[in-house]
Predict the 3D structure of the following.
Amino acid sequence: MKKTALLFVFLLGIMTVTGFAQDKDASEYMALAEKGDADAQFNLGRCYAKEENYTEAVKWYMKAAKQNHADAQWRLGNYYYNGWAEPEVPQDYAEAAKWYRKAAEQNHADAQCNLGICYEYGYGVPQNYEEAVKWYIKAAEQGIANAQNNLGVCYYWGYGVPQDYEEAVKWYIKAAEKEFAEAQNNLGVCYHHGNGVQQDYAEAFKWYRKAAENGSTIAMINIGDMYRDGNSYEDYKKAESYYMKAVNKGSSDAMIKMGDLYLYNYDDFNDFEDKSWQDCFSKAITWYKLAIEQNNPDGITSLARLFDEYYLELGDKLTIDGVFHEYNSLNDVYPYAKDTLRPCVDELWLSAAQKGSAEAQAVIGFKKFVEKNFDEAMEWYIKAKENGATCVYRRINVILPIDIAIMLCDHFKKHSFEYDFYFADKKPDLDLFSNHFNGWQIYVFPGTGWSDVSYYDQSSDHIYVTVTKNDKFGLIKLSKDGKLLEKTPIIYDSYFYYYDDDENDKFHTELNGQDVKFDL
């Protein structure tokens, strides 16, 4: 399953606060403010802020905040968080968190939400998901839509609380009903994938559309994905339309989606009928380049994936210049235009991983795993998970849930001597058009496959893993904590398959033309 991102957008700007006096001229508050009246000082600060005189605004907010005026403390926290009054008030997360806390302890709901954000991301305070959840709950119970959404995110991913999709949905609904776009998108994600609710594409589409109408670019992308993948109905023109809506709002993720549409769906898209494959290929590269120029590391990942596929199919002898022989624009994308693909691919994956691409971090983790650098592999896998990766995916080579990848890494670190053949030095001869997938390939059963890589049957107390390398196949059975339960002998020139409807839930393989069942 292609992961649909959950968007975390936090509103830290100036929000409406109830109970304020009607807007007046600053002169009407000045006399009282100079006498030390905290409410007048706060309202005077608001007048200056409205005139965009942030230096004076902060001056009067500070006076009110020091008198324990909660609204002023919250506003002051926003100024420090965003650096709105630099250089007089530079961006300072620690100061922001300090003032948020003072207001939050007076039950100021917006400040509680913002303090939760600081704890979730470690802004000005040590990162602490449990503390984040505590403050989100306080704000969410007072009806703050942003906090309700953020609390839903914590339950969805298990940040500071046990993972609970149904609880996540509950909080998303509360925020979504307040027209909070990010919660509407997140609720759409839950319906799209059946997390916490019955899977319902129509309902997912409904919430994505509401979020898109409220300006969510990730919802626009998700609608495009539904049209592209046929979850509503397949319509590449409509997919393009929604991707372009997001592009026009500045979304670099949508630029990558446009590149993917040209690259992978060129022969299905009506506008492509009169275009050559090379034309579409060139357009895809252009879109990826635009995303890279927007500092989106996933643009680099897209190039890495593309080059990786060519390397896997054509090997070391092919140069990038040979692939893009007539597209000089490639030289502007990456400096290795004359090099062979292998070093370029390696550099691209690493560059994307270092810049924060979760997919690239997962791939680098796998590369380190194959090299038996288990500690480094684990570090990259954990980074990938923290950045939202749900699976490790590399065409031909590997496909498995990220949690299982972490478990396998720990297992192989302790037992790699039992699996030496998996780390053989023999260089594979890759043939994409045969039934023999050389190189590493990992599948986890039950419950994972090409369209379902982020799941496995969590009700099962064990996990089956097939691993292949260089036409050697093995099957192992692990407990969920990574303990080896059983394994098959090494099988040659074969392929394991698993039927959910097998009466005994057995694995099969074909040996010497005969179907063989394994009792693992």
Q: What stands out?
A: Confidence is low (pLDDT under 50) at residues 1-22, 311-339, 425-437, 448-455. The CA atoms of residues 282 and 327 lie 7 Å apart. The longest strand covers residues 462-469. The first helix runs from residue 26 to 34.
